[in-house]
Amino acid sequence: MTQFCLLFVLGTFVARAFAADPALPFAMTWSSKSFGPDGPWQAVQIGIGTPAQQVALYPGGTFRSHLLTPRICSNVTLSPNACFASAGGLYAVESSTTALGTIIRFPAATDFTHGGLQVQGTQGIGTLDQMIIGTSDGLRNTITVPNVTIAVYDDIAAVYPSGSIKALQVGTFGLGYLGTANQSFTQPGQPTINGSLIPGYLQAANLTPSNSFGLQIGSVRSKIKGSLYFGGYDQTRICGDISTQQGAFAGIEPDDDGKKGLIDLLDIAINVIDGSSPFNTSTISNLLATGNSSIGPALSVSMLPEAPYLDLPKSSCDAIAAWLPVTYNADLGLYTWNTNDPRYTQIVSSPSVLSFVFRKGQSNTQNITINVPFMLLNLTLEAPLVTSTAPYFPCNAQSNGRYSLGRAFLQAAFVGANWNANNNQGVWWLAQAPGPNIGSQITVQTIRDQDASISPSSNDWAASWKGVLVPFSGKSASTATTSPSAATNTASSLNTTNSSNGLTQGAKAGIGAGIAVCGLGIISLCAFLYLRKYNRKNETPLRGISTARTTASSINGVGSPHEKYRDGGYGPAELNSHEPAELNSHEPKNSHQIQNDQVQLVYELGGDVYK
Ligand SMILES: *[C@@H]1O[C@H](CO)[C@@H](O)[C@H](O)[C@H]1NC(C)=O
Ligand SMILES: *[C@@H]1O[C@H](CO)[C@@H](O)[C@H](O)[C@H]1NC(C)=O
Ligand SMILES: *[C@@H]1O[C@H](CO)[C@@H](O)[C@H](O)[C@H]1NC(C)=O
Ligand SMILES: *[C@@H]1O[C@H](CO)[C@@H](O)[C@H](O)[C@H]1NC(C)=O
Ligand SMILES: *[C@@H]1O[C@H](CO)[C@@H](O)[C@H](O)[C@H]1NC(C)=O
Ligand SMILES: *[C@@H]1O[C@H](CO)[C@@H](O)[C@H](O)[C@H]1NC(C)=O
Ligand SMILES: *[C@@H]1O[C@H](CO)[C@@H](O)[C@H](O)[C@H]1NC(C)=O
Ligand SMILES: *[C@@H]1O[C@H](CO)[C@@H](O)[C@H](O)[C@H]1NC(C)=O
Ligand SMILES: *[C@@H]1O[C@H](CO)[C@@H](O)[C@H](O)[C@H]1NC(C)=O
Ligand SMILES: *[C@@H]1O[C@H](CO)[C@@H](O)[C@H](O)[C@H]1NC(C)=O
C-alpha cells in the first residue's frame, strides 16, 4: 500500500507503576449540552489537540476514540442544509500541532457503533493526538493524555431502512481494552509508534488505581446526570444486584463480530411498579420470544453505549409495541408514540417499566432484572431523521441480526469493566441504576487492579423514582379492570426509605398493593407538589456532579506488580489489506514517567461545563 500505511502490530503490553502514592478514580466531565437526533443523549466533554478543540463524545467502544471532521459539513450529501455533525464539535487534525496525522494513517473501521447503527462511508483515518480530560474531579481538574489513539471521519453517515443517509452528530470516546495501556503501530524501517488508551494510560501513569471504568449514561429529561469514572465508580449509581460477566466488554475494534461481551437476555416484560396499571393487565411477560419460535430460552445481547437503540428482533419489538400506543415507522425501523392516545401519557409518566431479565453471573440458576421506566423510552426524533420532532419508542426493528442494548437501555443501567481482572481476561458488570432521586452526594469507590467485583449502594430503586414517576390512579383506557400490583421480580414499593433490603418480596408487594388501594389521595398530592416544583425549576440547567469527593473508601495502591505480554487488540480483519502482521515481541517494561505539566495543567473547558 502507500508509504502512509503502517503495519499494525497486534502486540500490546501491560505495565505497572511502582509509585507509593495511592491513585484515585478519575471523573470525566460531561457536556452541558445534549445531543440527538434520537436522544436527547448526554456525552462527555474533552479537549483534543493543541490548541485544544472542544468536542463532546459518547463514551463507548474499545481502543480508539472516533471523531468527526469539518469535511462532513462541506459535503452537501451529508449536510444538505445544516451541518448536524457539528453538534458535538468537530476535530480538524490539521489544526493541531500535537496531532501525528502525517505520520500515522492506518485505516479504521467505518462502523464505530459496532452494528448498533448501519454506518456507512469512508474508512476512518487513524492518528494520535493529546486529549485533555476531566474537570469535575475536584482534586486534579484535568489530565492531559498524550498520543491518544483516535480515528477521524470525513465522510460517514447512518443508513436507515428506507435507504436514506443521515449524518451522525457525535463521535465516541474509547473506554480501553483488556490489559492494554498502549497500542503499538510499526512500519518497516520506522520506530514504533505508541498510542495511549485512556484508562490504561491513567493506570500506567499511576493517576488511577486500575485499568477500568464505571458508567451510567443517565437521562437528560429525567435529570439523571451522566457518570463516568476511570479506576472506580460512583456506588450511588448501583441499586441492588450486580451481574458479573467474565471477558471483555463489547464494542471491539475494528470489527466487532457481535460475539464479544454478550449476556443472555431471558425475557422482556412490562410491569407496573405502583398505582393502577395503564394496561389492561398488570404484568405482561414473554415479550422477547412472542411470535418467534427461533429465539429459544435466551437471546445473547451486548451493551453498546456508542449506539442509541434497543436492537432486538423485529418480533420482540412488535410484541412490545402491541401493548403500546405506538406506530411503526418503516422508514426508520422505529416506533413513534401516538401522543393523542390517552394511554401515552399514562404509560410514560407512571411507574410503568420495560423489564429486561438477564442471566445473572453467567449462571443458569440466577437472573437479574433491569427496569427501564417508559419515561426514559419517550425519546425524541429530530432532524435530519424527521422533519418535525416526534416522540418515539427506541426499539430498533431493523437490527439486521445484531442484537444489542444501546443508550436507551443504558440510561437506566450501570455498566463497568475491569480490563485487567483475571490476569487481563477482564470482567464486566451490569446492574440496575437509580432514577434521579439519589441526592447530590456521590460515593466514589476504587476498583483495584485485579478486582473482579464491585458493590452496590443501599439505595432503593423505587424510591429513586418517587415523585418523578407518578402512579396512575384511573382506569385503564383499555377495557377490563386493573388490579393493583407490584411486579414480581422488581424491588417495588412506595416506601421511600433508603433501603428496602430488610423487606421480603411479600412485604413489599403488600405495601405496594396497600398503598395503591388506599393512598390515591396522597399520591395525587405528591404528584401535584412535584409537578409544581418541577415546573418552577424547569429553566434551571442540569446541575453538575458535586466536586466534593464524599468518600473514597478502600483506596489502595496499585496491585502487586504484574506484567504480562498479551496479544490483545485488533483482530486480523484490519490487517487483511496490509502486509502480514507480525506479533510485536517487546518485553514488557515500566517506562512511563509523567511530566509535571501534564498532570498539573489546568485547562478551562470553554464554558461548556456544568456550573
Ligand atoms: C459526500 O458523502 C457521500 C455520502 O457518504 C459520499 O458518497 C461522497 O463521496 C462524499 N463526497 C465527498 C466530496 O467527499
Ligand atoms: C507521541 O508519539 C510520537 C511518535 O511516536 C513521539 O515522538 C512523541 O514523543 C510522543 N509524545 C509523547 C508525549 O509521548
Ligand atoms: C513504544 O513502546 C515500545 C514498547 O514498550 C518501546 O520499545 C518504544 O520505544 C516505544 N516508542 C516510543 C516512541 O516511545
Ligand atoms: C426471530 O428471531 C431470530 C433470532 O433468533 C431472528 O433472526 C428473526 O429475524 C426473528 N424474526 C422476526 C420476525 O423478527
Ligand atoms: C389488552 O390490550 C391488548 C393490547 O392493547 C389487547 O391486544 C388485548 O386484547 C387486551 N385484552 C383485553 C382482555 O382487553
Ligand atoms: C428469574 O428468577 C426467578 C426466581 O428464581 C424465577 O421465578 C423466574 O422465572 C426467572 N425468570 C426468568 C425469565 O427466567
Ligand atoms: C415525552 O417526550 C416529549 C418530547 O418528545 C416531551 O415533550 C414530553 O414531556 C415527554 N413526556 C413525559 C411524560 O416525559
Ligand atoms: C418503610 O420501611 C420501613 C423499613 O425499612 C418501615 O419501618 C416503615 O414502616 C415503612 N413505611 C411504610 C409507609 O410502609
Ligand atoms: C435516608 O437516609 C438519610 C441518612 O441516612 C436520612 O437523613 C433520610 O431521612 C432517609 N430518608 C428516608 C426517606 O428515610
Ligand atoms: C506508551 O507510549 C509512550 C510513547 O508514545 C511511552 O512514553 C510510554 O512509556 C508507553 N506506555 C507504556 C505503558 O508502555
UniProtKB/TrEMBL annotation:
State the organism of origin.
Answer: Venustampulla echinocandica
Coiled-coil regions listed: none
Q: Which GO terms describe its biological process?
A: proteolysis
Q: In Gene Ontology terms, what is one molecular function of this protein? A: peptidase activity
User: What protein does this entry describe?
Assistant: Acid protease
By its UniProt entry, which InterPro entries does this protein fall under?
PEPTIDASE_A1 (IPR033121), Peptidase_aspartic_dom_sf (IPR021109)
Membrane-crossing ranges are 509-531
Annotated Peptidase A1 domain ranges read 42-428
Chain positions covered by the region annotation Disordered:
479-500, 552-596
Domain of life where this protein originates: Eukaryota
On whether Transmembrane is a keyword of this UniProt record, the answer is yes
Identify the stretch annotated as signal peptide in this record.
1-19
Compositional bias (Basic and acidic residues): 576-590
| Keywords assigned by UniProt, alphabetized | Hydrolase, Membrane, Protease, Signal, Transmembrane, Transmembrane helix
